[in-house]
Design a protein that fits this description.
The protein is α/β, with parallel strands linked by helices and 456 residues long. Helices cover 20% and strands 26% of the residues. The protein contains eight helices and 23 strands. Strands 14, 17, 18, 19, 20, 21, 22 and 23 form an eight-stranded mixed beta sheet that branches.
């Protein structure tokens, strides 16, 4: 018999639900009653890539776009910080994703970063998707003189409402808030089971936090599970759902276990799922986690990217007395025009806006906050030695304890030796033999540095 799990969008447990309810109450007090502008819109343009037809679903008229639906927002107030959309659509196609591009004050086709319920799950019901459009220009620069467009993903669209203040939907109020939880120091309950003042004797894990599911807080569809729609996945191991809160699990279309039960996975955006992972760390004496951060403009809160995983990890580490620190993975820096600017802006954002170094669970060594940087000199990462040195020199001015993650053959990369000595500690990915480990330790000993053994 298949499991029947009714999935909620967010679940914090009893204590966190109370906090969430208070947060929503405050948000609604300030955002739910004073909108100055609201309009119900119809498509503005029916030509080119904006053609559409009209059909019915459940006796309701809907627009069926060929590619895009274009809209104009006449009368929308100028100089408003954000526009908010409520899109009612018929949840028909599975796996399709809806996106909004709008005429902003900087670009005619800016993608909205904050949105909810944009992926099709095949419920065959009308559902609502909410979007926040920051710094809208709305100067008719899109096709047909339009202000914004929906890449509809084949969804039948019933209605479009635009406002200059948030809608009262509680989940949307939380997911689209201009004051998200990561922009404040952590202030919830905290345990101190593990000493945050030293790494000595600690067993730490790398924590990617890169799994996403449709309609979670990131609302980016399937990310990093590698599903192809036919029940195949690229992950090494399938998660056992038995000990997760059922509300934090997402059913996967066309995936069933050998016992013919529905297959479920989790999202790293879900606080209960991340909390469960840190609960297991506490149970099995894993002292903490290096939160891997794949730094780029498209994945940094400094440039507008949501930081749900950062918030979840910080909270879970405090609730379970674990320690944590940032681990930059520089794999995507090579595609940036100015990698130094991107990574230093990101770190300043984490310190000054998210206040991560004020967290009592943030890891320290030798009296300094720990920062792990993985990937400089690793083949195919393609960040030049000059850029890597400039970045490390800057971080060395920030009074940090720096750990470098390098390739297992780093000892042969003699042109990088001066760079390696800018760190306090080195981790090689991963030592192949005991003799490799001994050789690497001897080299680091000669430089007055420490080795961080790596196990998988």
């Amino acid at each position: 018999m298949q499991q029947t799990v009714k999935r909620k969008e967010i679940n914090f447990g009893a204590t966190h639900r109370r906090c969430f309810s208070l947060l929503i109450l405050v948000l609604l007090m300030f955002t739910g009653t004073s909108q100055a502008f609201e309009a119900s819109l119809t498509p503005h343009y029916n030509g080119g890539d904006g053609t559409y037809t009209t059909e019915t679903r459940d006796s309701e008229a809907v627009w069926i776009p060929t590619s895009y639906l274009y809209f104009n927002a006449p009368g929308f107030p100028a100089s408003v910080q954000s526009a908010y959309l409520e899109i009612t659509y018929y949840d028909e196609p599975i796996g399709s994703t809806m996106r909004v591009q709008y005429d902003s004050d900087s670009d005619a086709y800016t993608m909205s970063d904050y949105h909810t319920r944009s992926s099709g799950e095949g419920t065959d019901t009308f559902v609502k998707s909410y979007h926040r459009l920051d710094n809208p220009g709305f100067t008719d620069r899109q096709n047909g003189g339009s202000d914004f467009r929906i890449n509809g993903g084949g969804f039948p669209i019933k209605s479009m409402i635009i406002r200059d203040t948030p809608f009262s939907d509680p989940y949307a109020a939380y997911a689209l808030s201009h004051n998200p939880p990561w922009l404040s120091p952590y202030s919830g309950p905290s345990r101190d089971d593990v000493n945050a003042d030293t790494l000595k004797g600690k067993v730490m894990t790398g924590y990617q936090g890169w799994f996403k599911t449709p309609n979670d807080l990131y609302d980016a569809g399937w990310v990093h599970w590698g599903f192809d729609g036919n029940g195949n996945s690229t992950v090494d191991m399938w998660p056992n759902p038995d000990h997760y809160d059922p509300a934090s699990l997402h059913p996967v279309p066309n995936v069933f276990t050998e016992s013919e039960e529905q297959g479920y996975v989790f999202s790293s955006a879900d606080p209960e799922a991340v909390n469960k992972h840190f609960e297991w760390m506490r149970k099995y004496n894993i002292d903490g986690a290096y939160l891997q951060r794949f730094v780029s403009r498209s994945r940094s809160g400094y440039y507008g990217y949501p930081e749900w995983v950062l918030n979840n990890v910080r909270q879970a580490a405090n609730l379970h007395g674990r320690i944590w620190a940032i681990e930059y993975d520089i794999s995507s820096l090579s595609s940036e025009a100015d990698p130094f600017e991107v990574i230093t802006n990101d770190w300043n954002f984490l310190v000054n806006d998210c206040h991560i170094l004020d967290d009592p669970r943030y890891a320290h060594e030798d009296g300094k906050p720990v920062l792990f940087i993985w990937g400089f000199s690793v083949p195919d990462r393609e960040v030049t030695l000059e850029n890597a040195d400039a970045i490390l020199d800057w971080f060395n001015t920030q009074d940090l304890y720096l750990i470098g993650g390098v390739h297992s053959s780093w000892e042969s990369m003699t042109d990088w030796y001066d760079h390696y000595q800018k760190y306090d500690q080195i981790l090689a990915w991963m030592e192949r033999t005991q003799s490799d480990l001994v050789s690497q330790k001897n080299k680091l000993d000669s430089w007055g540095m420490k080795i961080l053994p790596h196990a998988w």
